[in-house]
Design brief:
about 110 residues; mainly alpha; Arc Repressor Mutant, subunit A; 2 domains; two-stranded antiparallel sheet
């Protein structure tokens, strides 16, 4: 999805060329894009024999959908469990902690 947002639209071959350096098969990328299309995150149009794919959701909206899915599946539907895990697993700077506190303070209002 990140590559599609950056490029706007792409074929499977273009996506494959733009992905990080780990070796992936053309068919693997094609399968992933088709799954994203079936889920309504990506649209396509045909150009000759090729399919050109484009994101249907803005990045922020996709992040929200994906995060809700992760919270539901991995954190028993409790956002606080996700936050606990992030705080425990990641090193936070003083600025990060201050930003989190400001977000929480704004949420209380």
């Amino acid at each position: 999805m990140t590559v599609l947002w950056r490029l706007g639209e792409a074929t499977v071959a273009t996506l494959l060329a733009e992905l990080p350096r780990r070796p992936l098969a053309y068919t693997s990328v094609s399968t992933m894009v088709r799954i994203l299309e079936q889920k309504g995150f990506v649209g396509s149009r045909k150009e000759g024999r090729l399919h050109v794919y484009a994101p249907l959701l803005p990045k922020q909206e996709y992040e929200t959908v994906a995060l809700r899915h992760v919270i539901g599946k991995l954190f028993d539907g409790a956002p606080l469990n996700l936050v606990r895990c992030l705080v425990a697993a990641e090193e936070l700077s003083a600025a990060d902690v201050a930003a989190l506190q400001a977000l929480l303070k704004g949420k209380r209002r």
